[in-house]
Design goal:
This protein has helices spanning about 1-10, 10-164. By secondary structure, the chain is mostly helical.
Amino acid sequence: MSEFLSKINSDSIFMIITAVSIVILIFVLLMVVISSMKIKSYKNRFINSQIDNQDKDELIIKQQNELEKIKIINAKSEYALKEFKQTKNILNETKRELELLETSTKALHNLQTETRNELNYKIELLESLTEKHKALNEKFNTIKDENSKLKVNNTRLLVKLQSL
């Protein structure tokens, strides 16, 4: 064993390895101690929270019983109030619908009048444009015929000119 210790003392690599292993061992021991302390404190906290939860559960049960009593007392008043509100809402909705129908009827009547006037204007415009189109189409055909005659005449003149 002493030979082994002297070998470790003389060899620096073994010395470093030994020192590192001792440090790691101390670190692991420290972590175990810290973990056990944390576990103990968490255990105490858990027990305290269970006791608090039991107390809170009892309080909640008492308050729920009181709430049920209050709900029973208020149920009749709420029912009467609900019926009154429904009647009031129905009346208000009927008034709003009547106003909307009157407004809608007026708007539709105005739209119908505008549409009728616009339709009459467009019919008159269509008729006048159709007449103009017919007149222009006749004029176009006349000009086209005249143009064809002039082309034929120009071609004849060109042939005569080339023959000279």
